[in-house]
Amino acid sequence: MPDKWLVGVDLGGTTTKLAFINTYGEIIEKWEIPTDNSELGKYITVNIAKSIDQKLEELGQIKQNLLGVGMGAPGPVHYETGVILNAVNLGWEDNFPLKDLLEAETSLPAAIDNDANCAALGEMWKGAGNGAKDLVCITLGTGVGGGVIAGGNIVQGVNGAGGEIGHITAIPKGGAPCNCGKTGCLETIASATGIVRLAKEELAKTNASGELKDRLDQNGSLTAKDVYDCARNGDMVAAKVVDEVSFHLGLTLANIANTLNPAKIVLGGGVSKAGDRLLEPVKRYFDQFAFRPVRKSTELALATLGNDAGVIGAAWLVKKHSEHL
Q1: CB 3.0 to 4.6 Å from 41: which of 45, 92, 129, 260, for a disulfide?
Q2: Which helix (DSSP H) or strand (DSSP E) does residue 90 occupy?
Q3: Which pLDDT value is given to residue 1?
């Protein structure tokens, strides 16, 4: 093995993605395992450690050639201590000592951060960020995650909750309830879940016919992809929903950019697969609300790494950590 490898782990509520990555950010091997959150999640780090050992054996490699393991975890993380403050989907109690347990199970140095932060670091290092040191990454999936990079470093905040863009209040009065306990969060509008909710509400309110209504009647459900596909095909209800989502997302991103003046804002997650149908209207509203010097200097772009962003960003944590030792 001519080059040391990094282990990147993207921990999810149902699936954990793992990868061996070289110090240039290139994936050598990647795989997935189920996330076992039974018995207060006590098997999660054990299973990760076992999986790393099994994969090394399959590849005929030894653990001494691994620099360390980096992990992106869902929830706010205290970066210095590697304590995850709250992770409702993993079974862990609050203030869970994730870094210490991961190091004990793997016998490797570990670095832990929020999963959205890791996705942002991945896009900065090897993706759409293209090396930009001032970058905001928004992940539009089941929820809305955010990662803010300033001067090449993640903005952690006082207790690891920096960059929680999904919980910026987009609708101050009358907004839908969010899982965080607030109402009107951006997550309730611009996530895949929020887009579907808006679409169903609009269909019920207008009782309009069209392709979107037909899809709901035929399938009994809708997806965010249905909404964007139907909008692309000229469905009026879908187009109205896309415009509402674009307005709130564009306004929020403009306010973030006015505060941070990033070189790039990168949109990722499943919703970003809508491509230009997502990006173009969001950019129109962004341009409307952004301060002119910010509008001229901040580029909106689609993420390029897909599901690999998290493991690549987690590996970057290890790389940075090892350079400081």
Answers
A1: 92
A2: none
A3: 44
Q: For residues 162 and 137, what is the distance between their CA atoms, to the nearest angstrom? A: 13
Q: Strand locations in the chain, DSSP E?
A: 5-11, 15-22, 27-34, 66-73, 77-78, 83-84, 110-114, 135-140, 144-150, 153-154, 264-268, 299-302
Identify the burial level of 174 via C-beta atoms within 10 angstroms of its C-beta, where 0-12 means exposed, 13-18 middle and 19 or more buried.
exposed
Domain ranges within the chain, ordered by starting residue: 5-122+308-324, 130-304
Cα–Cα distance for residue pair 79/121, rounded to 1 Å: 14
Is it true that 5-122+308-324 and 130-304 share their CATH fold? Answer: yes
User: What pLDDT, on a 0 to 100 scale, did the predictor assign at position 76?
Assistant: 84
What the block records as the tokens of 239 is: 């187009």
Q: Domain 130-304, what fold? A: Nucleotidyltransferase; domain 5 (3.30.420)
Q: Cβ atoms within 10 A of the Cβ of 217, count? A: 10
Assign residue 2 a region (left: φ > 0; alpha: ψ between -120 and 50; beta: otherwise): alpha
Spell 277-310 as b/e; 16+ CB within 10 A means b: bbbebbbebbeebbeeebbeebebbbbbbeebbb
Choosing among 3.30.420.40, 3.60.15.10, 3.40.50.300, 3.20.110.10, the CATH entry for 5-122+308-324 is 3.30.420.40
The amino acid at residue 154 is I
Contacts of 300 (CB under 8 A, 6+ apart): 253, 264, 265, 267, 279, 282, 283, 286
Question: How much is the pTM?
Answer: 0.86
Say if residue 80 is exposed, middle or buried (CB neighbours under 10 Å; 0-12, 13-18, 19+).
exposed
| Closest by Cα among 38, 15, 308, 324 to 153 | 324
